[in-house]
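Example record

One chain of 222 residues, shown exactly as stored in the release files.
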Amino acid sequence: MGYRFTDLTAACQDDWRAYIEHDFVRSLGAGTLAEDAFRHYLQQDYLFLIHFARAYALAAYKSRTLADLRQAHEGLKAIVDVELGLHVGYCREWGISEEALASLPEARATMAYTRYVLDTGNRGDLLDLHVALAPCLIGYGEIANWLNGRQGTVRGKANPYDAWIAMYEGEEFQGAMRAELEWLDARLADVTPARFQELSEVFRDATRLEIDFWQMGLDRAD
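Predicted structure tokens for this chain:
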């Protein structure tokens, strides 16, 4: 029997839970997260999205089939044509102008994470790149679902971050998450134990960098 995505999370279970259940996430779900911490995260997430788009462009370059090329193209279009615009609008609601976003310096956690993803994709193949991106694409969907199953989560107008949870629990994002899980499961099924070990290390490192990204928000770190 081949490997699945759940085998990747099992291989670094402590790090995966520390990411999904981070204090930033818990406070966001409870509505108690400091607003300046959330603003700092939002600003850096804008920069991350730009590099995420670059990663999809790299995925197109790394694609060996037309299906994978189309998938990469759709991902790039979704970020550049839709998601970045929505993020700019959301930032505006939090008092952050597009001009301010355009002149942002990258925090070290942002730089470390995004460059790790791009470096992994450059030196590896398409599966390496997808595994490096998985903590973000799959993780955010799992975080929304975890928050919704948690007793301490506050929904509606009582939580200023309710729209953030709604974005990642929504069918569009959850559908993208399911499609990515199917893609990963299909390819992980054919890898050798040695190759799976390599991919587990990529996934573990990317997950730890996601933890640092949450912590950056809490610490308001540059």
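Notes: The mean pLDDT is 94.
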